[in-house]
Amino acid sequence: MAQCKTPNCDNKASYVRDLCRGCYQQAAKMVRDKVTTWDELMAMGLAGPASARGRPHGARHRFTQAFQKAKGIREGEATDGN
Ligand SMILES: [Zn+2]
């Protein structure tokens, strides 16, 4: 596992897009709020590609699956910014 991409973050455990959980959640919030986009963050070197883990087509991260289940969202209805 790579270190979190955020320069001033010393969290060693990257989670998604080469970011730790906290940084990813903040980045995802900014993408959701249309402050930025994942493409822009990747261009700035502040995030990695979503496919960095090589997840199978259509598969979502277990946290996303759990979130969707808890929220009552069916597969395919939610967006993660892609
Ligand atoms: Zn971080």
- Number of domain units: 1
Name the helix and strand elements from N-terminus to C-terminus, one letter apiece: HHH
Profile the largest sheet: none
Regions with pLDDT < 50 over 5+ consecutive residues? Answer: none
Q: Class by helix and strand content? A: mainly alpha
Question: If you average the pLDDT, what whole number results?
Answer: 80
Q: How would you explain this protein's 3D organization?
A:
The mean pLDDT is 80. The chain is built from 3 helices and no strands. The two termini are 23 Å apart. It has helices spanning 21-32, 38-43, 62-71. It is an all-alpha fold and 82 residues long. The protein has one domain (1-82). 18% of the residues are buried. Residues 4, 6, 9, 11, 19-20, 22-23 line the site of zinc ion.
